[in-house]
Write a structure and sequence with these properties.
about 40% helix; binds zinc ion
Length: about 140
C-alpha cells in the first residue's frame, strides 16, 4: 500500500467514525430532548436506561408503534448482520424490530408483522427462519426518556 492510499484510507476511517458518533449523538438528543442539568434530563435518562435494561432482559419483538414510542432507532452500520444475543434487526417490510438471536425457551412462537422473521421453539425443538434476509437491517435501540 502506498503512502497516498494509506492517507486516503485513514481520512475515510476518520470520516466514518465522525459520522457514527454524530448519529449516536443525534439519537441521544432525540431520546432525551431536555437540557443536561435540568431535573427533567436525569428523569428522562433514568427512564431511558430502564427501557434499555428491559429490552436486554426480555428481548421482545416490537411492533412499530411500541418500538418508536419506547426507542430511538438508528442503523447500526457495517455490512450485513451477525446474529447475537442483544442484537436487533429491523424488518423493513413491516417495521417490526426483532432480536437477531434468542436464548432457548420452552415455548416461543412469534413472527414479525409480515412473517419474514419467524421464531419457533417447543421444548427441545427449535427453528428460526428468515425469508428475505436482505430486508433486515441491523439497528441500535436507544431508550427514550
Ligand atoms: Zn416483517
Amino acid at each position: 500500500m502506498d503512502k497516498q492510499r494509506r492517507r486516503e484510507l485513514k481520512a475515510l476511517g476518520k470520516a466514518e467514525v465522525a459520522r457514527q458518533s454524530a448519529a449516536v449523538w443525534a439519537a441521544l438528543r432525540e431520546a432525551n430532548p431536555a437540557q443536561p442539568g435540568d431535573p427533567e434530563w436525569s428523569e428522562n435518562y433514568r427512564r431511558g436506561v430502564e427501557r434499555e435494561r428491559w429490552l436486554r432482559k426480555e428481548l421482545p419483538l416490537l411492533a412499530p408503534d411500541t418500538l418508536h414510542k419506547l426507542f430511538v432507532v438508528r442503523e447500526a452500520g457495517g455490512a450485513g448482520w451477525v446474529p447475537h444475543i442483544g442484537g436487533y434487526l429491523l424488518c423493513t417490510s413491516c417495521g417490526y424490530a426483532t432480536p437477531s438471536a434468542l436464548p432457548r425457551r420452552m415455548l416461543y412462537w412469534r413472527a414479525c408483522g409480515c412473517g419474514n422473521v419467524r421464531w419457533r421453539m417447543l421444548f427441545w425443538w427449535r427453528r428460526s427462519s428468515v425469508r428475505y434476509p436482505e430486508k433486515l437491517v441491523p439497528v441500535k435501540l436507544t431508550g427514550r426518556g
